[in-house]
Records
---
Amino acid sequence: MRMSDLIEKKKCGLAHTREEIDFLIHGLVREAEPIPDYQISAWLMAVYFRGMTDEEIFYLTDAMARSGDMTDLSALGEMTVDKHSTGGVGDKTTLIVAPIVATLGATVAKMSGRGLGFTGGTVDKLEAIPGFCTVLSRDEFLAQCKTHGIAVVGQSGNLAPADKKLYALRDVTATVDSIPLIASSIMSKKLAAGAKSIVLDVKVGSGAFMKDTASARSLAQKMVAIGKAAERSMAAILTNMDIPLGFAIGNALEVKEAVAVLEGKGPRDLTEVSLTLASEMLSLSLHIQAEEAREKCLSVIADGSAKRKLCEMVRAQGGDASYIEDTEKFPRAETVCKVLSPEDGYLSHMDAEKIGIASSLLGAGREKKEDLLDMTAGIVLCRKTGDYVKKGDILAELHTSTRDTRSAEETFLSALAFSGIQPEPAKLIYEIVR
Ligand code: URA
């Protein structure tokens, strides 16, 4: 088999066999004489324009998943469940849904990522809790899941290494925004992470990869089909990312807001998305209807047991759970600057991506992998799309201990649009693909 023949085949819009895809992925990751980047890049561009059949997407995902360690969670039983968000601004749902579903008997054995660019990452948020360790050995990870039903750690270095290589090439060859390539990239890591049930939060809007519901639906359907072909129970929820989720953006600020949801005092939008995700996770792993699952989720918020489960996980991973018991212990940023409205009118649009960038400029996110984070940094929104504001009203607070706030303030204001007409209320959950 020759790589040039595979490029030719895809260039002509023909479908690859399983053997051809395996050849490509093995050739990509082998140490001795790997397939050169220029050939892989040419093939990626051919896929970008010609697409892939559902069968090819499954073969590609499966080969990428098997290119590294496959986590074996069989010792944890049948009720292992995972969730994945395609990435958004202010998305702290993992910190909420993981303890909720673990309290109710499902096992959350979760590997999460770090933030890059304008999106945050769960691992960074957890590291805002003093002492919290996101690196566990495989045995420690499994033992914690067995004892506590919950562990959230960083992705191991050898999880789907083929995806790491392909993603790096996609990033520099303008081939990231291809549905077959995004679906196989996300699902290869989820399959390798080993859970029996997987719920996907596919974000739609200005702060997401997918800017419209049609492409988000198509991505969701492909990922659900891949998971089912790999014998996993699957659901995908299309949720709004035109507006940041909740009011808090930034690591410690988001942990505080997540705890508020577990105390029954969180923002309406964040609570609703979290309850929908948690209900689907529970419904798949306990084989119950989503409505019954939702009632159970509400009950463990009301009786405080979900918050206690988060404290239990924090303690098990070496963190100081007193910060969860009383979130006022999180240090406040040295500088807190108020952003005032420049005019009267309805807030008619918030560009979630720009707000994420403003938060990064305050020190909450990274531009490069090696950048250090300011855990106190971020934005607290005081007004959101649909609200009426008067000139001089406070729109948001910018928090930072390490940066000047000027460029963040400019970026934040450039994310907003005002209008004399009240905008239609935005939908929060578009649909569920099961
Ligand atoms: N997230 C991933 O892991 N892969 C993609 O291709 C896009 C988003």
---
Amino acid sequence: MQRRDLFLSLTRLAAALAWQQVFSAGARAQPHPDEAWMTQDDPFPLGVASGDPLPDSVVLWTRLAPRPLQADGGMPQVAVPVRWEVAADARFTQIVRQGVVVAEPAVAHSVHVLAEGLAPGRTYHYRFEAGGQRSPVGRTRTAPDLVEPVRQLRMALASCQHYEHGYFTAHREIAASDVDLVLFVGDYIYTTQAPNHLKVRSHAQAMDPEPAGRTLADYRIHHANYKLDDDLRASHAAHPWLMVWDDHEVMPDYTGDTAPGLDDPQAFVAARAAAYKAYFEHMPVSPRRVPFNASMPMQGRYRWGQLADIWTLDTRQHRDPALCGEWPRSLMHGKLLWRCDAIGDDRRTFLGQQQEDWLAAGLAGSDAQWKFIAQTTQVTPWPIRSPLGPLTYAEGWDAFPAARARMMEAIAQPRVQDVVFLGGDVHRHVAANLRHEPRDPTSPIIASEVVTTSITSKGMSEVANAWIKAGNPDVLHMRSDQRGHVMLDVTPREVRCVFRGTPHPVRPQSKLRTQATYVIERGKPGLRKA
Ligand code: FE
Ligand code: CA
């Protein structure tokens, strides 16, 4: 495992250097960009986005694609110069940074501008120009200075947006909200088709369920399909995003280099490489995250002044393969495990050794008032009682108990205070207390957990949900019947978690309501109902 991590680090370094060369070459002379390329069409139908906010920089994204549902986006196979501008005001009378980058056909004419030299804790506006056309204006924000005693941080927590299951109305609310950040914790696209009874709209193009049948063009078209949604584009244009990914960005339930039920591992790795590349091309992530083959560095750590440290974890790329894949150990296409003792193996990892060590060291050394660990899924155990005995959700931390125990130890042992886990994946709102020994009611509560429901993806039945909730008294709130997001209001004294929701499926004009509000007080792990 460690040798593999070292190899990955080296290949990433090589990829990042190659990327830097493209960028600096672009900044110097620009490798024959077609300056004359002009278009009457709008090359920006996929909108604009920003992300990775640091105190002095932010990443600005767009992709030129006048015909976004074509494999080439309707672009010629030439590099095209893209002008970018960052202004202090929405009318662009005070431009503070500007430049020209090259949109290369090799990356689907996407651009990831690292806009540097910005002031901390400020709102900025940005836009692009290419082919004689101007993009919509985006708004973004830099992180406060590292030593700044920040009084407030507002974040929208979101995940799981199957396009066919509903409308992205939750994003309309997020776009209109006064938040500093959107924290998206995975399942940004779904490559599966919804069954007819769940379908409220259709993907532009169905994906081949077999990895061998999937191409880079398929993933690009799929991402473009999602970005054509007005509410999703508005949410990106309004705020900087921090990205965590999960399985559906590639293929359902994949783990590391494998996916369930696949005969051809090579085909899966090729599909994963295509999926990672298309993901990079469509997300406002730092250019240093550029993927190399089937590997992309996703983990991150962000700081919001003295108020918060935010870790964004990658629980997919480095996790150990799923176990007990054969019936009767595996039920519901591998989603549930029955009597699978092998998951108890101490060596099993959910994050990969390198990421585990990095998180533990970061937590131990953090002097931020709050430590947010944003990751894909629910950390709190949710054993499922059945007439046959307990069942385990194969996709989450419950199937990696030793890895979870090590993470809890990394909090308990150095006595890291004020840790809050933020997750998604399970398509339900959850508020839960996390104990040092998660299943032991006598063990101390050492952290809090907030899980957001899905933007659209269907949840379990409320009956099943009630069984699960009954199985763990540390789950204070759990509802799977509504779609929405969680608004997190962070101050030095408390984190206020507002669970917003609307019934499934989400209609275009749905209004979200507050389902519940919970508060975490600083110095007192666990949540209480407000
Ligand atoms: Fe999901
Ligand atoms: Ca998932």
